[in-house]
Write a structure and sequence with these properties.
Elements lengths: L23 E2 L3 E5 L3 E7 L3 E11 L2 E8 L16 E8 L10 E5 L2 E7 L15
Parallel strand pairs: 1-6
Antiparallel strand pairs: 2-3, 3-8, 4-5, 5-6, 7-8
Length: 130
């Protein structure tokens, strides 16, 4: 249904469209399909919902987000989190109704619901008989 490239967890990606000298990370995603929709969950820890840019254009769904520096809670002993931007792009099949895409972000997880167009949903056909 959707053509997606597999990427590893929070690895730096090389994109030619970066206009700033920042790190980009590819959020890990899970994608589920039902008869009526695709549901995508993207892990974007440290990103505030207002700092997410979600766009659909020319058959491509683009997810970008900015994770700020972690809050300092005392003397830092170990740091494994990097500050940087999240970026991921998906080619979306024409069977998705792009006018009804919904998005929600809670606890660092972005949830996207991509409804299928009515003409591609399975339908039950009634059988006439005696």
């Amino acid at each position: 249904m959707a053509d997606m490239n597999a990427m590893t967890n929070r690895t730096e990606t090389t994109t030619k469209e970066a206009t700033r000298n920042n790190k980009y990370f590819a959020p890990r995603v899970d994608i589920f399909e039902t008869d009526s929709e695709l549901v995508l969950h993207a892990d974007m820890p440290g990103v505030d919902p207002k700092d997410i840019d979600l766009r659909y254009e020319n058959g491509e769904l683009i997810v970008q987000g900015r994770a700020g520096a972690p809050v300092n809670h005392g003397h830092l002993i170990l740091s494994e989190f990097d500050e940087g931007d999240y970026y991921r792009a998906f080619q979306i099949h024409e069977s998705i109704d792009s006018t009804r895409i919904e998005a929600e972000c809670k606890n660092g997880v972005l949830k996207l619901v991509l409804p299928k167009a009515e003409h591609v949903k399975p339908r039950k056909i009634a059988i006439k008989g005696e």
